[in-house]
Structure formats: C-alpha cells, structure tokens
Amino acid sequence: MLRTILVGSCVSVQGLLVGKLADGNIVVRVDDKTFVGKPVPTIRAA
C-alpha cells in the first residue's frame, strides 16, 4: 500500500508502507531506502 509521510516541515515522501511505530510515525520504503515520518491524513470523498 502506498503511503505519504512528512519528513520535515516541507518535505514529503511517498512509498510502500513497511510498518507503524509506537510513537505514531510510519516507515515507508522507496527503492532500497527507508524513511520515517508523520503520516499525511487521508481525505475520503463523499
């Protein structure tokens, strides 16, 4: 599943979900690199 995270105040990364951490952050993988950050909230259309 693709997820988008915020790594900094203006930097976002989109990649495959690897896992969720206890502090609310999630881990995504892009190619051979992993990134940790806050998940971007998903908005569902009505």
Descriptive report:
With 46 residues, this protein is mainly β. The protein has one domain. Helices cover 0% and strands 57% of the residues. The protein has strands at residues 2-6, 12-20, 26-30, 33-39. Strands 1-2-3-4 form a 4-stranded antiparallel beta barrel. The chain is globular and about 35 Å long. The termini are far apart.
The Cα radius of gyration reads: 11 Å
The counted number of beta strands is 4
For the biggest β-sheet, the strand order reads: 1-2-3-4
Q: What number of structural domains do the residues give?
A: 1
Beta content: over 45%
Helicity level: under 10%
Structural class: mainly beta
Q: Tell me, briefly, the overall form.
A: globular
Element string (H = helix, E = strand): EEEE
Largest sheet geometry: 4 strands, antiparallel, barrel
Estimate the mean pLDDT confidence. 94
Supply the number of helical segments: 0
Low-confidence stretches: none
Measured between the Cα atoms of the first and last residue, the distance is 22 Å
Q: What topology emerges from the helices and strands here?
A:
Elements: E1 2-6, E2 12-20, E3 26-30, E4 33-39
Antiparallel strand pairs: 1-2, 1-4, 2-3, 3-4
List keywords for this structure.
globular; mainly beta; 4-stranded antiparallel β-barrel; single chain; 46 residues
